[in-house]
Amino acid sequence: MDTEAIKRRIVELQIEHRDLDDAIARLGGQPGVDELTLRRLKKRKLQIKDTIMRLQMRLVPDIPA
Q1: Which of 1, 33, 45, 60 suits a disulfide with 5, CB 3.0-4.6 Å?
Q2: Is the pTM of this model over 0.70?
Q3: pLDDT > 90: percent of the chain
Q4: Per-residue pLDDT at 31 exceeds 90
């Protein structure tokens, strides 16, 4: 992946992460919420965050020790 493709993917993932955050907040405030669905959304949100971090690390050049 080139730098521009990585940056585009990071933006896409950040949007998805923000959307999941909104969905989790809405579901969490509802009575009788499906806990399994809520857990899956939270897990997906964490996976996206990890992917964003990995992609950002690819943009930072290695610094010799």
Answers
A1: 1
A2: yes
A3: 74
A4: no
